[in-house]
# Entry
Amino acid sequence: AQTVTQSQPEMSVQEAETVTLSCTYDTSESDYYLFWYKQPPSRQMILVIRQEAYKQQNATENRFSVNFQKAAKSFSLKISDSQLGDAAMYFCAYRRGHDMRFGAGTRLTVKP
Amino acid sequence: DSGVTQTPKHLITATGQRVTLRCSPRSGDLSVYWYQQSLDQGLQFLIQYYNGEERAKGNILERFSAQQFPDLHSELNLSSLELGDSALYFCASSVGQGARLTEAFFGQGTRLTVV
# Structure
C-alpha cells in the first residue's frame, strides 16, 4: 500500500517569513495526484494545492507553492509571507484512482 | 462551502449504542470517502464507494458499515459503540473515474462523542 510520510510533527514560522513543510511518499505508479490540505482549528479540511504527477512544473497558488521531486518521491509545501491565518494542521495526501492516503500531519504555528 | 453536507454536526451517545452518520456529496460527484480523525490525530481511511459500489476498504472495524444509495448519498453506521470511537468523522467526495479521480472535497465532519 502507498504510504505518505510527514516527518515534521510541528513547525513554527515568524509572521511574514517563509516556511517549508516536507512530505515523502511511496508508490510504484507513475500517474497520480498529490495534495496539500489545511485543517485550521475549525477542523474543516481545506484544499491548499494540487499537483499532477505527469506535470513537471511545480504548482503554485498565490503564497503557496510546491517542490515536486518525482524521482525522489518528495512533495514539499512552501508558504511565503506567512500570515497568522496560516496556522493550522497541514496534511499531505497521495491519490491514484480510488486509493487516497494522508500523512500524519504537520502542525504549523505562526508567531506574530 | 465545499458542497459536501454531513449530518448531524454533533452527536453524543452512550456506549453500546448504534448511530448513523449521513453524507451528501457534491452534485455530480460519484465517489464518497469516509475518514475517522481522533483527537489531534491524522485521518484514518475507513471506506470508499463509487457510484453505489464499495471500491476500497481501510482499517474499518467490523462494528462499522457503510453504504451508498442510488441518489449517491452515503451513510456510515457505527454499532456497539465504545469510548474509543469518539472522533471526528469526515466524508469526502470527488468527481471523475479511474486514475483521473482528482481532489476530494470534505464535509465539515460529524463529531461523535461516546459517553
